[in-house]
UniProtKB/TrEMBL annotation:
It comes from Cimex lectularius (Bed bug). It is found in: Nucleus. This is Serrate RNA effector molecule homolog. Residues 8-47, 197-213, 221-247, 258-288 have a biased composition (Basic and acidic residues). Residues 520-683 form the SERRATE/Ars2 C-terminal domain.
Length: 710
């Protein structure tokens, strides 16, 4: 029996069912599958015409994708836990105390969760952080010594930080890297070697291809000669065989003893000669080793592997132990963990340039450290070493502003790391003087560029601005001073001024002096004073963290966040290890000894377990160092803890109603990203208030009713 029209239409619709949206498929399944269990977020409400806007589509993400703090109680939920007779002032103060206690608890939990990890210790542990700081200072001093060497050889003054001088800047940075890697003057000659451009190589290949036919003819002639010689040898062998066969009867074919002895002697002589030959080869090798000239090493070029996913439980030493097995290993660099990716770290492993980096990468990729894959891939070389910025950076006012800002940054960084303390202590300095007080040779003789000069009287008399040759010469001299400051910041402190950033941990990265931004070519168009001011202000704002000292919290703020005291924590440790068994009988759990009084247990702990008391003090410093950092890492705030927008009307407003638009993003509290809908919690929808007059359609001649609203 044939299908009906309804069934045929249904099949036609089912053919395109896979192309429907997910919400459409869910609605179709509601009609067919009645016994299927419903998931709370399996569907979304349809758009009603009276709503302000349609609901958002369901976001696809894992519920535990991002680690966040737990939700904090709202003020309304907090009031439900308090007494009904509480006043408004008490409620507000207690709620503020609750929020502060919640914050203290979150900081303490985060500290306990991460205090055993290496990256956390390098930041805040009193001993590990001090070692890290000493390593950084030693690396900075080495960079400063290399810069002074280049400065004394006039290599710094020969380079201009302009866009058209990119090759000279790259050569200078590479020479610095060679010196940092322990290279000699011979190794610096590798930068003078010019590589053949690809065009010339193509021409050489074409010339070889053109000459190939002549070579084929020569090969054929040689092959003919070889074939003729082979045929002649075969003929001689056949003739010798025939002579042997045609020998007279009775003649023995075996050789005589004399012949054997002669052959043995000959063989013995050959063997002795063969034995002597290796000795001659060894002597030749020794001579060759002495004769072979030393070649410059390309120490500025490296090969590297990028590790995409490193668990925070994996230490740098463990990765170094794995990578040291392969030839050409140099160093390992690990980044700070990423909170948005479950505190996963990234790493770079650097090798020499002449190694087979792909084979090493394949071997490392097959290794699991603490049941974690590191995701090793080959790191590509830098595509562009130098990059240019706006040509406005070459303007005279901008150059003078940059000199002042660079001088302030250098002074602050030198004081922060104490690079020139010996030179400064040898001089009697005045606190009011600027730059002359520093022992840094880069900051000498730049005071004249820190004070602006202008022909004010001449401009006033002539009524217009006058550009003299002296001003042009002064601008060129200012550029020279600025270039020296820029190169000092880039080489010593890894500060790329024109990029307004500092490349942290660059000394451990594959490229120790990789990228640098240069001044762009000045434009011929006129520039307004407002553009110059905005340009200078943007640099000043973004480089402000390098100008001012690192921020730390005050003692009052630390106490408010729950800072610990050494005396209190030591007392807690002693009380925890002092147990009263009976009257005049006390036990020390650390040693198992018993004493007649608590004071004897205290004395015993101070005498025998001073190392554990020191650990308690270090733990206190460890935690307080974490609290002192205003940029301390911590879990992201829960979306439900964020307050609403300021433009949301208050309930006292007569136009206020609880008709909220749907929230965007990844969920809001426990609502899962859905709008506040019926049956899903949140505020009740209510009705929106409409103040437009109601239009009536009654007859104008009809009498008015008393209860009628017009």
């Amino acid at each position: 029996m044939g299908d009906s029209d309804d069934e045929y239409d249904k099949k036609r619709r089912d053919k395109f069912q896979g192309e429907r949206t997910e919400s459409y498929r869910n609605d179709r399944r509601k009609e067919d599958d009645w016994g299927r269990s419903r998931v709370r977020n399996d569907y979304r409400d349809r758009y009603q015409g009276y709503q302000d806007m349609p609901p958002n589509k369901r976001m696809r993400f894992e519920p535990g994708d991002v680690d966040t703090q737990p939700p904090i109680m709202t003020f309304k939920a907090f009031l439900q836990t308090q007494d009904d007779n509480i006043t408004d002032e008490e409620a507000i103060s207690k709620y503020a105390e609750y929020k502060m206690e919640f914050r203290r608890q979150q900081l303490n939990e985060f500290f306990v969760a991460h205090k055993e990890e290496e990256w956390f210790k390098l930041k805040y542990h009193p001993e590990e952080s001090q070692k890290r700081k000493e390593e950084q200072i030693s690396a900075l001093k080495k960079r400063a010594s290399v810069f002074l060497e280049m400065l004394n050889k006039s290599k710094i003054d020969e380079v201009r930080v302009d866009a058209d001088q990119g090759d000279a800047v790259v050569k200078l940075l590479d020479s610095v890297v060679i010196r940092l890697e322990g290279g000699t003057d011979l190794d610096l000659q590798v930068l003078e070697l010019t590589e053949t451009p690809p065009d010339k190589e193509d021409k050489k290949e074409k010339e070889k291809e053109v000459k190939e036919p002549d070579g084929e003819e020569k090969d054929t002639d040689e092959i003919k000669e070889i074939k003729e010689d082979a045929e002649a040898d075969n003929i001689e062998k056949e003739e010798s065989k025939e002579e042997k066969e045609e020998g007279p009867p009775g003649v023995d074919d075996e050789p005589s003893k004399e012949d054997e002895n002669s052959e043995i002697k000959d063989n013995g002589e050959m063997k002795e000669e063969d034995k002597k030959e290796p000795k001659g080869d060894d002597s030749d090798k020794e001579q060759n080793d002495e004769v072979v000239p030393l070649t410059p090493r390309p120490l500025h070029k490296t090969s590297s592997i990028f590790l995409r996913t490193i668990s925070p439980r994996i230490t740098k030493q463990e990765i170094e132990t794995i990578c040291k097995k392969y030839p050409g290993f140099l160093r390992v660099s690990l980044s700070d963990p990423q909170p948005e990716q479950h505190w996963i770290r990234r790493g770079w492993v650097t090798f020499r340039r002449d190694v087979n980096i792909k084979e090493i990468c394949w071997n490392i990729n097959n290794i699991r450290v603490k049941d974690c894959e590191m995701g090793a891939i080959v790191n590509r070389d830098l595509s562009r070493r130098v990059r240019s910025v706006s040509g406005l950076s070459a303007h005279k006012q901008v150059v003078l502003h940059d000199i002042k800002l660079c001088a302030r940054i250098i002074q602050e960084l030198d004081a922060r790391y104490g690079l020139w303390e010996e030179e400064e202590s040898a001089k009697e300095t005045d606190a009011s003087s600027f730059c002359l007080a520093s022992g840094n040779p880069v900051l000498r003789d730049i005071t004249e560029f820190l004070v602006e000069e202008a022909p004010a009287e001449e401009e006033e008399l002539l009524g217009e601005g006058v550009v003299t040759d002296d001003s042009k010469n002064r601008h060129s001299a200012a550029l020279k001073v600025l270039d020296r400051l820029l190169l000092y910041l880039r080489i010593v402190y890894s500060v790329d001024y024109y990029n307004m950033s500092q490349y942290t941990s660059e000394d451990e990265m594959p490229n120790r002096c990789g990228i640098m931004h240069l001044r762009g070519m000045p434009s011929n168009t006129e520039v307004s004073q407002q553009e110059i001011n905005d340009y200078c202000e943007s640099y000043k704002t973004k480089l402000e963290p390098l100008v001012r000292p690192p921020e730390t919290l005050s003692e009052a703020e630390l106490t408010q966040l729950g800072a610990k005291s050494e005396e209190a924590e030591v007392e807690k440790f002693i009380q925890a290890n002092t147990q009263e068994l009976a009257k005049d009988k006390w036990l020390c759990p650390l040693s198992g000894k018993k004493f007649k009084g608590a004071q004897f247990v205290r004395k015993h702990i101070f005498n025998k377990y001073s190392d554990q008391l020191d650990e308690v003090k270090k733990e206190v410093d460890y935690f307080n160092n974490y609290l002192r950092d205003p940029k301390r890492p911590q879990l992201a705030e829960h979306p439900g803890n964020r307050g609403g927008k300021k433009d949301v009307p208050s309930p006292s407003d007569p136009t206020f109603h609880y008709q909220y638009p749907p929230f965007k993003g990844r969920g809001f509290g426990h609502f899962g990203g859905h709008p506040f809908a019926r049956g899903r919690g949140g505020f009740p929808r209510g009705r929106s208030v409409d103040y437009r007059p109601i239009i009536t359609y009654r007859d104008l001649d009809a009498p008015s009713e008393p209860d009628e609203i017009i």
